[in-house]
Structures are given as structure tokens and as C-alpha cells.
Amino acid sequence: MSALDRLADLVGIEPFYHDIWGNRRETSDATKRALIAAMGLPAGSDEEVEASLRAVDQRAWRRMLPPVIVLDEQAPLALTFALPAGLDDADLFWTLTEETGVSHRAALTVGNLPVADRAVIDGVAFERRTVSTRLPSRLPLGYHRLSVEIRPKGVGGSLEGSTTLIVAPERCLTVEEVVPSGRTWGIGLQLYALKSGDDWGIGDFDDLGRFAEAAGGLGAGLVGLNPLHALFPADPNHIGPYSPSSRSFLNILYIDVERVPELDATPDARTRIAAEDFRARLAAVRSAELVDYPAVSALKMPVLEALHATFRALPERHPRRLAFETFRREMGEPLRRHATFEALHEHFYRQDPNLWMWRSWPPAFHDPNSPEVQAFATERADRLDFFEYLQWEADRQLGEAADRGRKAGLAIGFYRDLAVAAHPGGAAAWADSGILVQGANVGAPPDQFNLKGQNWGLAPLSPVGLRETAYANFVAMLRANMRHAGALRIDHVMALQHLFWIPADGSDGAYVEYPMQDLLRIIALESRRNRCIVIGEDLGTVPEGFRPAMERAGILSYRVLYFERSADGGFKRPGEYPADAMVTVTTHDLATFKGFWTNRDLEWRQRLDLYPDNGARDKDSWDRGVDRWRMLQALSAEGLKPASYPTDEGSQPFSAELMEAVHRYLARSPGRIAMVQVEDALGEAEQPNLPGTVDQHPNWRRRLSVPVEAMPGHEGLRRLADAVRAERDRY
């Protein structure tokens, strides 16, 4: 094996992968060099590769302990540490401090500990020794700290090392632990798509609270949401929820301005809202078919600034001020950094639109800890406070919406959605540049939907950086997204095992491995601590053995009716679905059921010239007709085909009865959670997002045709809810 291959293997770059057609694709040397460089290791020449290889090889020997050790709660505690050879007479002192502050201490002699391994690094002999005695036999679940000090006899000074010990359960919280029957159903929606009589052109957290009450009243157990991640307030044209600035904070455009308590005490803001011009602009965005994000931002942001000024004038002991300070303490330094980025991004982008990416800013502002950044934060303290205030108010309103849903009967509550990665130009990449890789993007290899593969333009987490920081960033992100939620959907969950990286230089991509077992254990720990069920979106190319590993960890699989097929291409029978799954007819990236039946998505692809040739277009159309025929056959086999469909011919028109029958079909499956997309319940033909497009299709902008106030009495929604609930209760 060459030095390049060894180095690539050590940093987790897979030497090959099999595409969706079963073809083996080798990772080229150029790709290996580019991805190794993206991880911060020089690899441009053979000499650089050799030097980087030595550095990686030696790193584990030159430090006493790894930065983190993740253990199953049932595993016995043992510790292996590295030190120079020849210290047999030295005393070893260890201190294990539990998360609660309880400490355990002991002293041992190094020579009494068994040698696990030996190495010579630059002429210096090293050895690894193992401690298994006198350590606590079991530790409680949580995040603990272990420190080791070695004092050689008759020699001044000592050697020190420390590590984070994470003790985690085997499985996540299960549906059965929350819902006695172990089966429930829910309604999924895109929050921005909600509309009401008093919205400001976009669905907001008050609308969400009303929708949650309606869903609870219909007997649903949960409401599924699109990612609520922070975007870019300075540039409201950047709207993709799966391309966020940060996955740990919220999109502040979802704040309902009229529910912010400071409004009552801000007469200037009330006067502004009551002005004729403002009311005309508000009426225009409220009646629009599509969300106009810049117009919404132009309405909301000046009013929110006025409300923040009122808030700043409140007495220090005012309950709102005290609650804000509590939130700031809970969120800690990450909140401060996020607010600093927001203020910097606003400052530079307004100065010059070409300074949108933070790496285009003056170099002194690339580092959150630089004197220049600290000076900016001091000078613009009010602006930082404003962005922190918006995060706090968004969190408060989301929490209120969740409470309303639970009180209305949602047994699980909200399920939130965690995007696979963040934008390289966003707050997360700026605040944690050692964790988010800058020289590569996340994507997917070629498949039947994207023959050239996909580049999502997102920054992957560094597997090395994750371990070096004891997974702190990952833990914080999980906690942030489990907040005010009873379930969490992890987008492209295969990223826990490996993720497809595409070098910035344009060379072919390759899969990069992640510490899957550690990540699964941490997810299980946070799942139980936050009482949050976990669902893994496992669509696409799923590695062998991955789904069984998810099942063992208690993470629900994500099964979509359109994709669940038998060997002959027909739709799977309901009983063939796994129990540990969330099942759904469609997703935000696929045609609604009405759109599927009427070929609306195929019409869009033809209109936008997304087909490589007429043959591909005609094949899609033919295949869709076959799928309609297969679906009617599947419904017939279950006794669910409506009487208005006398045959299985796929040319028969769409009907609400057919929609209901298909959802009954899926609701009969043993899957723990059955989801209904609100677009299907309302009979919408258009889908929220059309993959492969950016501006050609109105992605992430479509508003629902029915206001939230009318949903409790909407006949189609009620009928579909009654049908799904009946099947869930029956089977």
C-alpha cells in the first residue's frame, strides 16, 4: 500500500464505492489528495504525504489519552494511555469527575499495569498501558472527565493527560415508551407554507401553534416540520431550509411580530404597522401565492428592531429581562458567536454584496477570537444583543407552539428536521472552522434521478475535528434540535457512517467515514435525556448493514411508499413494511400524491428542460403509467380500491377517494409512525421542492391554499385524518 493510500485510509477516505447500479467506482489519487488537504493535512506532493502520514501515525502516541472515549453503559470501564517507556517506577494518579461533580481518585504504580502496545517515534520508545482495576465498575450515563498525572520517581515535574468519557445507552427513546399502543400518526408540513388571516406573508410560530391544536383535535400524535434552522437575515434571498447558516439556531423570520410582548409598549411600532403604506404591503404579501422572503423581511425586521429598543429599556429585574439572561446563559458562547456572525455578515454584505462569504472578508475577521472581531463585538454590542434577542424570542414562540400542541393531544409533539450539513459561508462554518471542512462539499454519487451526481454546496463536518473536540459541536446541535420537540428526523442519516465529499477543485467525489458507533451512542444518550424519538432518513444508497445498526440503536427507518417495491416492481404489501419505521406516501422532494397521479412533476421537468433527451422523458411518462396501474393492483389486493375505479388501468383520473385509499393502505403497515403530508390532505398538486432546480421552480416558497383557521373544518383533511386514525387503531 502506498503512503497516499495509507494516509487516505487513516483519515477515513474509502478506496471505492458501489453506485446504485452496482458498479464499483475507485477513488482516484487526485481525489484522495484533495480531500486529505481539505482535512488540513498537506498532500500535494509525495513528500507532503509522507510528512502528513508521520504526523497522523504519531499523534496517538505523543499524547497520553485520546480526546474522547465513548462507552456503552453496560461496558466495563478500562483505560489505555500512552507514555514514554522506562517509567515503571513512576506513580500514576487518576481523577475521574462525574458530570454531577462526584469525583473518584486512585494512585497506582505504572510498572504494575500491563503493556498493550509499543512503538518507537523519532528514536523515542513509547508504550501503551491499560488501567482496569480500581476504576469504577460502572459510570452513570453522561459526560464525565478523566485526568491522569504521572510523576516519575526522583525527577521533578510530571506528565499529564485528560479525556472526556461519554457513557451512553444502547437505544434511543422508542415510540412504545411514549405512546402506549406503540403506533401513532402525524401530519407533516413546511412551516413557511402556512397562512392565516393575520400572518405577515409567511407561516409563523403562532400559525404553527394553531395548526398543532388542529392536528391534536384530529387525533394526530405529532406534527412534522421542515428544518427551522437559522438562515441569513442580512440576505433574505437565501431561503433553502436544507442549506442553513447554522443548524443550532432558529430562522428568525418565523417570529410572529404581533405576539412579541414589547409591541404593546412600543407606540412607534404600532403606528408604523397601522400606516396605510405598511398595510398595503402587508396585504400584498399576505395574499400572495408564494412567499416573498425579501418583502417579508422588509416588513418584519424594522418592527423587530423597534421592539428590541423597547426591551432594552425595561428594568433589569423585569421578568422578560431575567428570562433573556437565563436563555443567554443556557446557550452560552455559541449564541454569542452566532450573533457576532449575524452582525458581521450584515455589516460586510451591506457594504459590498461581493462580501457575502465570510472568507471574502478581511482576513482579520475570519477568526472569531481575533482582536478585530472582539473590537467589533464591543463596538456593535447593541446589534449583537438584537440578534440574541431574536433567537430568544423565536425559541420562546416555538416553545409556546409546542405546548399548545401537547395540550391539544399531540402525544409526541413536533418532530423537527436536522439538515445533513450547513452552508460553508454561514455562522457555523465561521464559528467552528476546525469542525466544518472548507475544501470540500457534501453531495451524492450518480443515481437514477441525477446521472451526474449531486453537489449540495454544503460544508461537511470533519470526522477528525469531531473527535478532537469530544463531539461537543455534535452534542450541542442535537440538543438544539431536540428542543421543544418529541421527535427528530435526521436528514440523510447515512452520514453517520459515511458521507460523499466532493473536492472543491472539481475532481470526482469519494465517501469519507465517520465514527458511526460513537455518534449512534451520543444520539441515544441525547434522545433519552431530551425525551426525543429519532427517525433516520435512509433513502438513496444505503450501505450494507446500516439499517440493522440503526434498528439496534432504536432509530426509526424512513420508508416512502413510492420507493417501497417488491422484486417484481410492484408496491410492497402493508405487512411487508418494518415495524421500526416511519412510513409516508411522499416527501417534500417528491410529487404530492395528486401531482404523482396527474404527472404534475413530470410536466415541470419537461417544461424546465430537465430531461437529457425525449427518450428519457417518454420513459418517465410510461413508467408513471405503469406505477399507477401497480398502485391500483396493490389497493385491490387489500380490498381498498374505490368503487369509482372499475379497472386497474392507470389512465383513470385522480380523486379524493383514491387519495384516502392510498393513505389507508400505508396506515395498515406495522410502521410505528404513519405520516400524512398536509399538501396531500388538502389536495395540492404542487410539491414544495423540485430537486435539480434552484430558481427555475418556486422551491421553498409555495403557500398552502387553505388558511390554518379553516383546517379544523376542512372536509378533505378531516376525512383523511379519520381514515388514517381508523386504520392505525384497527391494525
Automatic annotation (TrEMBL):
Q: What reaction(s) does this enzyme catalyze?
A: Transfers a segment of a (1->4)-alpha-D-glucan to a new position in an acceptor, which may be glucose or a (1->4)-alpha-D-glucan
Query: Which Pfam family is one of those matched by this entry?
Result: Glyco_hydro_77
Q: Which GO terms describe its molecular function?
A: 4-alpha-glucanotransferase activity
Q: Decide whether keyword Transmembrane is in the record.
A: no
Residue span, MalQ N-terminal beta-sandwich domain: 65-169
Keyword set includes Transferase: yes
InterPro entries with a match to the protein in the record = GH, Glyco_hydro_77, MalQ_N
Q: Which UniProt keywords apply?
A: Carbohydrate metabolism, Glycosyltransferase, Transferase
Q: What is its EC number?
A: 2.4.1.25
The membrane spanning regions, by residue number, are: none
Query: Which Gene3D superfamilies would you find in this protein's record?
Result: Glycosidases (3.20.20.80)
Q: What class of enzyme is it?
A: transferase
As for family, the record states: Belongs to the disproportionating enzyme family.
**Matches recorded under NCBIfam families:** malQ
**The protein's name:** 4-alpha-glucanotransferase
UniProt lineage: Bacteria, Pseudomonadati, Pseudomonadota, Alphaproteobacteria, Rhodospirillales
